[in-house]
Amino acid sequence: MPRPTPSSRRAVVLLSGGLDSSTVLAWAKQAGWELVAVSFRYGQRHPREMEAAQHQAALWKVAEHIQAQVDLAPVGGSALLGTAEVPKGRAMEEMGSDIPVTYVPARNALFLTYGLAVAEARKISEIFIGANAVDYSGYPDCRPDFLDAFEKMAILATKMGREGTRIHVRAPLLFMSKAEIVRKARELGLDLGHTWTCYDPQPDGSPCGLCDACRLRAQGFAAAGIPDPLLERRGT
User: Fold this and answer.
1) What are the start-end ranges of the H helices in the chain?
2) What is the residue range of 46's domain?
3) pLDDT digits (tens, 9 = 90+) for 81-109
4) Which of 27, 70, 153, 190 has the highest CB neighbour number within 10 Å of its CB?
5) What is the count of structural domains for the chain?
Protein backbone atom coordinates (compact mmCIF):
# COMPACT_ATOMS: atom_id res chain seq x y z
CA MET A 1 0.00 0.00 0.00
CA PRO A 2 1.44 3.43 -0.90
CA ARG A 3 2.34 5.72 1.95
CA PRO A 4 -0.23 8.54 2.41
CA THR A 5 1.05 11.94 1.36
CA PRO A 6 0.27 15.27 3.03
CA SER A 7 -2.45 17.43 1.51
CA SER A 8 -1.10 20.66 0.04
CA ARG A 9 -4.21 22.58 1.13
CA ARG A 10 -4.51 21.53 4.77
CA ALA A 11 -2.86 23.34 7.65
CA VAL A 12 -2.76 23.42 11.43
CA VAL A 13 -3.22 26.88 12.95
CA LEU A 14 -2.43 27.72 16.57
CA LEU A 15 -5.41 29.78 17.72
CA SER A 16 -5.26 31.66 21.01
CA GLY A 17 -8.25 33.87 20.31
CA GLY A 18 -6.05 36.96 20.22
CA LEU A 19 -5.92 39.51 17.43
CA ASP A 20 -2.84 38.04 15.76
CA SER A 21 -3.77 34.35 15.74
CA SER A 22 -7.36 35.15 14.74
CA THR A 23 -6.07 37.24 11.83
CA VAL A 24 -3.89 34.34 10.70
CA LEU A 25 -6.91 32.03 10.93
CA ALA A 26 -9.02 34.37 8.78
CA TRP A 27 -6.21 34.88 6.27
CA ALA A 28 -5.56 31.14 5.90
CA LYS A 29 -9.24 30.33 5.56
CA GLN A 30 -9.77 32.97 2.90
CA ALA A 31 -6.66 31.75 1.10
CA GLY A 32 -8.34 28.38 0.69
CA TRP A 33 -6.71 26.31 3.41
CA GLU A 34 -8.66 23.59 5.18
CA LEU A 35 -7.80 24.25 8.80
CA VAL A 36 -7.32 22.30 11.99
CA ALA A 37 -7.28 24.87 14.78
CA VAL A 38 -5.51 24.08 18.05
CA SER A 39 -6.19 26.11 21.20
CA PHE A 40 -4.86 25.59 24.70
CA ARG A 41 -6.14 25.71 28.23
CA TYR A 42 -2.75 26.02 29.87
CA GLY A 43 -3.59 27.31 33.34
CA GLN A 44 -3.94 30.94 32.27
CA ARG A 45 -5.54 33.44 34.63
CA HIS A 46 -8.86 33.72 32.80
CA PRO A 47 -11.04 31.93 30.21
CA ARG A 48 -11.51 34.88 27.86
CA GLU A 49 -8.87 33.74 25.36
CA MET A 50 -10.48 30.33 24.95
CA GLU A 51 -13.94 31.85 24.57
CA ALA A 52 -12.64 34.07 21.77
CA ALA A 53 -10.88 31.12 20.12
CA GLN A 54 -14.09 29.08 20.19
CA HIS A 55 -15.99 31.97 18.62
CA GLN A 56 -13.48 32.45 15.80
CA ALA A 57 -13.18 28.73 15.07
CA ALA A 58 -16.96 28.42 14.77
CA LEU A 59 -17.30 31.62 12.74
CA TRP A 60 -14.66 30.55 10.22
CA LYS A 61 -15.93 26.98 10.09
CA VAL A 62 -12.63 25.20 10.68
CA ALA A 63 -12.61 21.51 9.83
CA GLU A 64 -11.59 20.62 13.39
CA HIS A 65 -11.00 22.59 16.57
CA ILE A 66 -8.82 20.84 19.14
CA GLN A 67 -9.02 22.38 22.60
CA ALA A 68 -6.06 20.91 24.41
CA GLN A 69 -5.29 20.80 28.11
CA VAL A 70 -1.62 21.57 28.72
CA ASP A 71 -1.46 22.65 32.35
CA LEU A 72 1.52 24.94 32.89
CA ALA A 73 0.31 26.21 36.29
CA PRO A 74 2.59 23.77 38.18
CA VAL A 75 5.51 25.10 36.12
CA GLY A 76 4.89 28.70 37.18
CA GLY A 77 7.41 31.36 36.31
CA SER A 78 4.88 33.76 34.78
CA ALA A 79 2.37 36.34 35.97
CA LEU A 80 -0.12 34.76 33.58
CA LEU A 81 -0.03 31.49 35.50
CA GLY A 82 -0.47 32.68 39.05
CA THR A 83 -1.32 35.62 41.24
CA ALA A 84 1.75 37.76 40.60
CA GLU A 85 0.98 41.31 39.54
CA VAL A 86 0.70 41.95 35.83
CA PRO A 87 2.75 45.03 34.82
CA LYS A 88 0.56 48.04 34.04
CA GLY A 89 1.15 51.38 32.38
CA ARG A 90 4.59 50.66 30.94
CA ALA A 91 5.93 52.96 28.24
CA MET A 92 6.15 51.48 24.75
CA GLU A 93 9.94 51.65 24.67
CA GLU A 94 10.09 49.87 28.02
CA MET A 95 8.10 46.90 26.72
CA GLY A 96 10.78 45.79 24.27
CA SER A 97 13.71 46.41 26.61
CA ASP A 98 13.45 43.16 28.56
CA ILE A 99 11.53 39.90 28.80
CA PRO A 100 8.57 40.70 31.08
CA VAL A 101 7.02 38.60 33.84
CA THR A 102 4.08 37.85 31.53
CA TYR A 103 6.35 35.60 29.45
CA VAL A 104 5.28 31.97 29.97
CA PRO A 105 8.35 29.68 29.99
CA ALA A 106 8.73 27.86 26.66
CA ARG A 107 5.02 28.32 25.84
CA ASN A 108 5.34 28.67 22.07
CA ALA A 109 7.85 25.83 21.95
CA LEU A 110 5.35 23.60 23.76
CA PHE A 111 2.39 24.76 21.68
CA LEU A 112 4.24 24.35 18.41
CA THR A 113 5.34 20.87 19.47
CA TYR A 114 1.74 19.93 20.19
CA GLY A 115 0.68 21.45 16.87
CA LEU A 116 3.45 19.48 15.16
CA ALA A 117 2.10 16.25 16.66
CA VAL A 118 -1.40 17.11 15.43
CA ALA A 119 -0.02 17.92 11.98
CA GLU A 120 1.96 14.71 11.65
CA ALA A 121 -0.95 12.55 12.86
CA ARG A 122 -3.10 14.10 10.10
CA LYS A 123 -0.39 14.10 7.41
CA ILE A 124 -0.31 17.90 7.32
CA SER A 125 2.95 19.70 6.56
CA GLU A 126 1.93 23.33 7.23
CA ILE A 127 1.67 24.95 10.68
CA PHE A 128 0.56 28.56 11.08
CA ILE A 129 1.25 30.70 14.14
CA GLY A 130 0.41 34.35 14.87
CA ALA A 131 3.87 35.25 16.15
CA ASN A 132 4.92 38.87 15.66
CA ALA A 133 8.43 40.28 16.07
CA VAL A 134 7.62 43.98 15.58
CA ASP A 135 5.00 45.16 18.09
CA TYR A 136 5.54 42.62 20.84
CA SER A 137 6.63 42.47 24.46
CA GLY A 138 10.13 41.07 24.09
CA TYR A 139 9.19 37.39 24.12
CA PRO A 140 11.99 35.11 22.88
CA ASP A 141 9.54 32.66 21.28
CA CYS A 142 8.11 35.27 18.90
CA ARG A 143 11.38 35.84 17.08
CA PRO A 144 12.44 34.68 13.60
CA ASP A 145 15.48 32.74 14.78
CA PHE A 146 13.34 30.64 17.13
CA LEU A 147 10.79 29.85 14.42
CA ASP A 148 13.52 28.96 11.92
CA ALA A 149 15.16 26.66 14.46
CA PHE A 150 11.86 25.00 15.33
CA GLU A 151 11.14 24.30 11.68
CA LYS A 152 14.52 22.58 11.32
CA MET A 153 13.89 20.59 14.49
CA ALA A 154 10.41 19.57 13.28
CA ILE A 155 11.91 17.91 10.22
CA LEU A 156 14.45 16.02 12.31
CA ALA A 157 11.97 15.04 15.03
CA THR A 158 9.21 13.50 12.92
CA LYS A 159 8.72 10.39 10.83
CA MET A 160 7.15 12.54 8.14
CA GLY A 161 10.16 14.86 8.03
CA ARG A 162 12.68 12.01 8.00
CA GLU A 163 10.82 10.41 5.10
CA GLY A 164 11.26 13.51 2.97
CA THR A 165 8.26 15.76 3.59
CA ARG A 166 9.34 19.27 4.45
CA ILE A 167 7.41 20.71 7.38
CA HIS A 168 6.83 24.46 7.31
CA VAL A 169 6.19 26.77 10.24
CA ARG A 170 4.50 29.86 8.83
CA ALA A 171 4.19 33.19 10.66
CA PRO A 172 2.50 35.49 8.13
CA LEU A 173 2.37 38.45 10.54
CA LEU A 174 5.94 38.18 11.75
CA PHE A 175 7.19 41.49 10.36
CA MET A 176 3.93 43.46 10.35
CA SER A 177 3.21 46.33 12.71
CA LYS A 178 0.16 46.09 14.94
CA ALA A 179 -1.53 48.77 12.82
CA GLU A 180 -0.91 46.71 9.68
CA ILE A 181 -2.37 43.66 11.38
CA VAL A 182 -5.49 45.60 12.41
CA ARG A 183 -5.97 46.82 8.85
CA LYS A 184 -5.45 43.34 7.44
CA ALA A 185 -7.90 41.88 9.97
CA ARG A 186 -10.61 44.33 8.96
CA GLU A 187 -9.89 43.73 5.28
CA LEU A 188 -10.40 40.00 5.88
CA GLY A 189 -13.71 40.62 7.65
CA LEU A 190 -12.46 39.38 11.03
CA ASP A 191 -14.86 39.96 13.94
CA LEU A 192 -12.43 42.16 15.88
CA GLY A 193 -14.84 42.57 18.76
CA HIS A 194 -14.50 38.86 19.51
CA THR A 195 -10.72 38.79 19.76
CA TRP A 196 -9.12 38.93 23.18
CA THR A 197 -5.84 40.55 24.17
CA CYS A 198 -5.87 41.64 27.82
CA TYR A 199 -3.68 39.84 30.35
CA ASP A 200 -5.70 40.91 33.38
CA PRO A 201 -9.45 41.34 32.73
CA GLN A 202 -11.53 43.39 35.15
CA PRO A 203 -14.17 41.71 37.35
CA ASP A 204 -16.88 42.77 34.89
CA GLY A 205 -15.05 41.01 32.05
CA SER A 206 -13.74 44.14 30.36
CA PRO A 207 -10.08 44.60 29.37
CA CYS A 208 -7.91 46.44 31.89
CA GLY A 209 -6.56 48.85 29.26
CA LEU A 210 -3.21 49.18 31.05
CA CYS A 211 -1.28 45.92 30.62
CA ASP A 212 1.32 45.63 27.85
CA ALA A 213 -1.05 43.66 25.63
CA CYS A 214 -3.87 46.19 25.97
CA ARG A 215 -1.54 49.11 25.30
CA LEU A 216 -0.03 47.50 22.20
CA ARG A 217 -3.52 46.71 20.93
CA ALA A 218 -4.72 50.27 21.57
CA GLN A 219 -1.67 51.71 19.82
CA GLY A 220 -2.30 49.48 16.81
CA PHE A 221 -5.95 50.45 16.45
CA ALA A 222 -5.12 54.15 16.91
CA ALA A 223 -2.33 54.03 14.31
CA ALA A 224 -4.66 52.20 11.90
CA GLY A 225 -7.34 54.84 12.45
CA ILE A 226 -9.89 52.16 13.32
CA PRO A 227 -12.01 52.11 16.51
CA ASP A 228 -11.65 48.95 18.58
CA PRO A 229 -15.09 47.25 18.52
CA LEU A 230 -14.17 45.26 21.63
CA LEU A 231 -14.08 48.47 23.62
CA GLU A 232 -17.21 49.80 21.95
CA ARG A 233 -19.06 46.57 22.71
CA ARG A 234 -18.09 46.78 26.36
CA GLY A 235 -18.78 50.47 26.61
CA THR A 236 -15.24 51.43 27.66
Assistant:
1) 19-30, 48-59, 92-95, 107-121, 144-157, 159-162, 178-188, 212-224, 229-234
2) 10-234
3) 987 889 888 877 677 667 888 889 999 99
4) 190
5) 1
